[in-house]
Amino acid sequence: MGRLEKEEINRKLLHILALVLPVFIFYGPSLLDLSRTRVCWVVIGTFLFSLAFDFMRLSQTSLKAWFFAKFGSMLRVEEESQLTGATYILAGSFICSGISLVGENLAASVFLCLTLFILGDAAAALVGKGFGRIKIGNKSLEGAVGCFLLCFLLSNFIFPYLPDFLQKWGGNYTMGNVLMISLAISLLELFPIKFGRFTLNDNLYVPAVASMLVLI
After folding, report:
1. What is the distance between the alpha carbons of residues 182 and 190, in angstroms, rounded to a whole number?
2. Strand-pair category, 139-140 with 194-195
3. Alpha helices by DSSP H, the chain
């Protein structure tokens, strides 16, 4: 059994704060009387701010030292010299907010898939670190199973009862939808896209790709 470090738990708890993004994308128009376009612009602005801060952190020694002193325990090794996961989550949310502009059914799909990915990714990391034995690259089969189970439970027993979700989804919300999306998120999280030695950050594309499955 692996060792689940306190830093990883804190990292994923902070990661879960990103749930405000899918909630804002889906419910922002009705709760805040904003158009979906304005919601998209807010997400874009937040992403650009995070991106600018990351570039400043990487280029300015004093800011880098301050950031590392405050949050270094939660950073992965590669994030010390690259963009943080938070910036990638915001980038993925920006893409998802753009997808939500296409139609209300896709706004519902984005809400579902972005939420499932944020929570499923956290579950995969925590289960994998704590119980993972069967390694697949840098991840584990146990983590993928944990991700799938959480996605399945949430999409089957929670989302159908959330306000406006089924209405915006349109058509039938079937067990096929639940299984397809849960499996897609789990597999895309487990097998990252690679271009030679470069691995594409899964925060960037998994929720967006999964959201488009509603069109199949």
Report:
1. 12
2. unpaired
3. 6-16, 20-31, 36-59, 61-71, 85-100, 104-131, 141-157, 165-169, 175-190, 202-211
In a domain, 99, yes or no: yes
Contact 206, 185 (CB under 8 A): yes
State phi, psi for 199 to the nearest 5 degrees. -105, 125
End-to-end CA distance of the chain: 39
Give the chain's largest Cα–Cα span. Answer: 54
Please give the structure tokens belonging to residue 195. Answer: 């271009």
Is 1 among the domain residues? no
Residue 10 in domain? yes
Q: 186 is in which domain, residue-wise?
A: 6-215
Query: pLDDT of the chain along its 216 residues, tens only?
Result: 444 466 666 666 667 789 999 999 999 999 999 999 999 999 999 999 999 999 999 999 999 899 888 777 677 777 888 999 889 999 999 999 999 999 999 999 999 999 999 999 989 988 998 898 999 988 999 999 999 999 999 999 999 999 999 999 998 999 999 999 999 999 999 999 988 888 899 999 999 999 999 887
* Residue 115 to residue 27: CA distance in whole angstroms: 13
